[in-house]
Specification:
Layout (H helix, E strand, L loop, with lengths): L3 E5 L3 H12 L3 E5 L3 H8 L10 H11 L2 E4 L2 H7 L2 E4 L15 H10 L7 E5 L7 H12 L6 E5 L9 H6 L4 E4 L3 H10 L1 H5 L4 E4 L1 H32 L3 H9 L20 H14 L7 H24 L8 E5 L14 H11 L3 E5 L4 H7 L4 E2 L3 H4 L5 E4 L4 H4 L3 H5 L6 E4 L6 H6 L3 E4 L4
Parallel strand pairs: 1-2, 1-4, 2-3, 4-5, 5-6, 7-8, 9-10, 9-12, 10-11, 12-13, 13-14
Helix pairs in contact: 1-3, 5-6, 10-11, 10-12, 10-13, 12-13, 13-14
This protein binds uridine-5'-diphosphate-glucuronic acid (UGA).
Uridine-5'-diphosphate-glucuronic acid binds next to helix 10 and helix 12.
Length: 439
């Protein structure tokens, strides 16, 4: 049987999941409560930057297999499997995650569920949420026993979302019945037959796998950034140190790039929500190290501002600072908790004349920070700069020619916030080159 799928929430995760499942041959109905977003998606106009996704969206629409709606009634009528992909942002003024969008989906969908179906949670949640939502479904759905919940965390990275969805590292499934497992095996058959490992487990374990993975990644990044702090104090070079560590297969080189640290809509808020939830469960001691992971990460941003001020001669007054990069990482237009933007705003607050350039994130920057000046290219943004900061390692920045850039700036001073440039080449062109964690 070919199941009909719905995808609730059409952000980075949901839009990708909907378009990829349609590309695999399923009939898919995407739902969002934001009518503007739905209008754009229906027109084949992807509201986010994600390599390869616009094409998949358009081919899905053209095939007739991919459609969008704002109606829960229509979605309930249509779907055999309902994927829930809404966001769980950090609560204002607290560490905990705000799961109200998830509750809103269940409360809006459940009253229309009059036949057999499976609801599949993909959002990142505090452990215990799945069971709570399962109970709520059972209470609110007219089809009661015929409606089941499964938990299937998503591990995709922005910038590689299509690839990660089509070829995941693993599929994790929290289920309470063989029936749910059977349905999910059919849905993910293309991935499973390609050899993707499948881990069948219970709800809490499935929920925890996701936050544990992000906590591990955040810890690895903060570990190397802590080493960068020690390297600075000891006049050692963290880039060489990281390279040397990477050859130990038990350590590995991925997520071991020292620099400005992690940002985005996931890692920072996920480790905080994980600590908050562990506290509620009485297991807070187990995760106190994540407080340190977070603190190391935030210190990188402060250190970057200090280094830039040092290069500016001790004060940002009267100083033009060019910030290359605004997205939280390359290949994305996402500026949520972006380290680059955070640094740009802090320098502006301290009196610097800041100009930001990013290949794809400037529309989002203009909307969120209308008072921040933006350039139309890296070279234009760098006109007359006293200090240049490379804060997101887009290839077009790492490939910049030091002579060409040197021709437009007022003084050749650069801080490489991502350890992405070749120090020797830049110094040979007369640049005062500095990087976090290096002499
Ligand atoms: C992260 C995880 O990698 C995904 O597996 C997960 O599914 C996703 O969160 C999520 O929870 O939805 P993402 O936020 O897209 O994915 O970005 P990452 O590629 O993990 O990068 C996160 C941050 O770490 C970026 O700011 C990046 O610049 C930084 N980073 C990464 C470093 O500072 N150093 C590194 O070595 C690697």
């Amino acid at each position: 049987m070919s199941y009909r799928l719905t995808v609730m929430g059409t952000g980075y995760l949901g839009a990708t999941h909907a378009a990829c499942m349609a590309a695999l041959g399923f009939e898919v109905l995407g739902l969002d409560v934001d009518p503007d977003k739905i209008a754009r998606l229906r027109a084949g106009d992807l509201p986010i930057h994600e390599p390869g996704l616009q094409d998949l969206l358009q081919s899905g629409l053209a095939s007739g297999r991919l459609r969008f709606t704002t109606s829960y009634e229509e979605a309930a009528e249509f779907g055999d499997v309902h994927f829930v992909c809404v966001g769980t942002p950090q609560k204002k003024g607290e560490y905990a995650a705000d799961v109200s969008y998830l509750d809103a989906v269940v409360e809006s969908l459940a009253p229309h569920l009059t036949r057999q179906c499976l609801v599949v949670g993909k959002s990142t949640v505090p452990v215990g949420t799945a069971q709570r939502l399962a109970d709520k479904l059972a209470l609110l759905a007219p089809a009661a026993d015929l409606v089941e919940l499964a938990w299937n965390p998503e591990f995709l990275r922005e910038g590689f979302a299509v690839k990660d969805t089509m070829n995941p590292d693993r599929i994790v499934l929290g289920v309470v019945s063989d029936k749910a497992e059977k349905v999910m095996r059919e849905v993910y058959e293309p991935m499973l037959s390609a050899g993707t490992p499948l881990i069948i487990t219970d709800y809490p374990t499935a929920e925890l796998v996701k936050v544990a993975a992000n906590a591990f990644l955040a810890t690895k990044i903060s570990f190397i950034n802590a080493m960068a702090e020690v390297c600075e104090a000891a006049h050692a070079d963290v880039k060489d140190l990281s390279l040397a560590l990477s050859f130990d297969e038990r350590i590995g080189g991925r997520f071991l790039n020292p620099g400005l640290g992690f940002g985005g809509g996931c890692l920072p808020k996920d480790i905080r929500a994980f600590m908050a939830r562990a506290g509620e469960l009485g297991a807070d001691q187990a995760l106190t190290f994540l407080r340190e992971v977070d603190a190391i990460n935030m210190r990188r941003r402060a250190r970057m501002v200090d280094l830039a001020r040092e290069l500016a001669g001790g004060s940002f007054r009267g100083c033009s600072v060019t910030v290359l990069g605004a997205a939280f990482k390359p290949n994305s237009d996402d500026i949520r908790d972006s380290p680059a933007l955070d640094v740009a705003l802090k320098i502006q607050e301290q009196g610097g004349k800041v100009t930001v350039y990013d290949p794809v994130a400037l529309d989002n920057v203009r909307k969120a920070h209308p008072n921040l000046s933006v350039g139309s290219s890296a070279l234009e943004a760098a006109q007359g700069a006293h200090v240049v900061l490379l804060l997101t390692e887009w290839p077009e920045f790492t490939e910049l020619d030091p002579e060409t850039l040197g021709g437009v700036v007022a003084s050749r001073r650069i801080v490489d916030g991502r350890n992405a440039l070749d120090a020797e080449t830049w110094r040979a062109s007369g640049w005062h080159y500095r990087a976090l964690g290096r002499p």
